[in-house]
Amino acid sequence: MYKVQTLNNISVKGLERLPREQYEVASEIGHPDAILVRSAKMHDMEIPTTVKAIGRAGAGVNNIPVEVMSRRGVAVFNAPGANANAVKELVLAAMLLAARNICQAWDFARRLEGDDASINQQTEAGKKNFVGFELPGRTLGVVGLGAIGVKVANAARLLGMEVIGFDPQITVRRAWQLASDVRQAHTVDEVVANSDFVTLHVPLNEHTKGLINAERLSLMPEQAVVLNFSRAGIVDDEAVIAALDGGRLHGYMCDFPSNRLKDHPKVVTLPHLGASTREAEENCAIMVADQVRDYLENGNVRNSVNFPDMNMPRGGKGDRLAVVNANVPNMLGQISTALADAGLNIDDMYNKSRGDLAYTLVDVEGKIPDAVTQRIADVEGVLHVRVIE
Ligand SMILES: NC(=O)c1ccc[n+]([C@@H]2O[C@H](COP(=O)([O-])OP(=O)(O)OC[C@H]3O[C@@H](n4cnc5c(N)ncnc54)[C@H](O)[C@@H]3O)[C@@H](O)[C@H]2O)c1
Ligand SMILES: O=C(O)[C@H](O)COP(=O)(O)O
Hints:
Oligomer: single chain
Domain ACT: 320-389
Family: Belongs to the D-isomer specific 2-hydroxyacid dehydrogenase family.
CATH class of the largest domain: Alpha Beta
Mean pLDDT: 97
Enzyme class: oxidoreductase
Largest sheet: 7 strands, parallel
Bound molecules: nicotinamide-adenine-dinucleotide, 3-phosphoglyceric acid
Pathway: Amino-acid biosynthesis; L-serine biosynthesis; L-serine from 3-phospho-D-glycerate: step 1/3
Strand content: 15-25%
Structural class: alpha/beta
Number of helices: 13
EC number: 1.1.1.399, 1.1.1.95
Number of domains: 3
Helix content: 25-40%
CATH architecture of the largest domain: 3-Layer(aba) Sandwich
């Protein structure tokens, strides 16, 4: 029986992928084999030594101590693209909210008092304060052309906007998906200097923290709009507030409320709603549950952020050994010697590396005795080893 701990609400559609006969799933559970999580912060959490996999039912993994997990040989998975449409739709909504001053105007309308004739009179007198602008012909700058950025860029083209994008590590797959008339920028500065709207779709890390700062805001055209549906921290809140108060920025639309931001008249903060659609929650949960299950039951790896992709079909009649180790010479030699010394014949073997980490699956004829597993676990550089029956 595998044990899976959930740290957030994970869609039942995903949990249903873990059959009850084989899986015990609960928010509180001893000795879990895997953890399923959304945005719960795991950096200060004591992660049990029994954990072999962490599945993030979503995109961003900045809430997970990925490097620490890599050193422990724990695989971390996410659900790339599974919530991209949900975020795209919210970004489009936010662009329209900003362009037409909808939140401010709605707020005005909700505060109207008096009889209907008076409300009508106040409406007609007040509407001049909310005159907006239209999207066709305006330029949208997209920083980060991954699953979400590409969808936002393509949708903006269909709305008649010019689009300029920047992503120095764009994948071939995303480049194929991107509308061919999206202009390529070579720096973030080039994006911000040429965009009426700038939208951010990059992970939060040491390179993207404070990506939109006072200097970059000063390059933006007058009355531009910044959209941040990626992470708090990618935008310097103080710099944005200064740019809004100084009249350079028209608005700041984001998914991350804070005391400084939430009541500002030119800021709209939503409560981290980007991925909060039924469809996205289901997509993410299903994708990550399937991946974690395949890893626990077969050792296969798909959409991990720290392990190499690996898919070795189960054909053999014996045990499968899964070894996570440092990516250094002679590890395979030591693993196969330990098996050979125990008289175990290798049926199939697959080894791949990713950065400092290497991962090996070995199918043997017969059962692997505990002593052999222990001998391999004791090899210097082996981070984690397990036998899958
Ligand atoms: N608001 C929400 O609810 C919500 C939902 C989903 C994702 N997100 C956030 O959005 C981020 C992006 O999600 P995604 O699914 O598009 O991820 P993704 O991995 O598909 O795309 C990220 C892209 O950013 C690019 N990139 C990385 N560093 C960059 C830099 N310094 N400059 C330019 N490009 C850079 C990468 O090359 C990649 O193409 C996630 O990491 C997450 O933090 C938020
Ligand atoms: O990175 C993500 O996928 C989003 O921020 C979604 O977070 P959530 O799963 O907590 O809604």
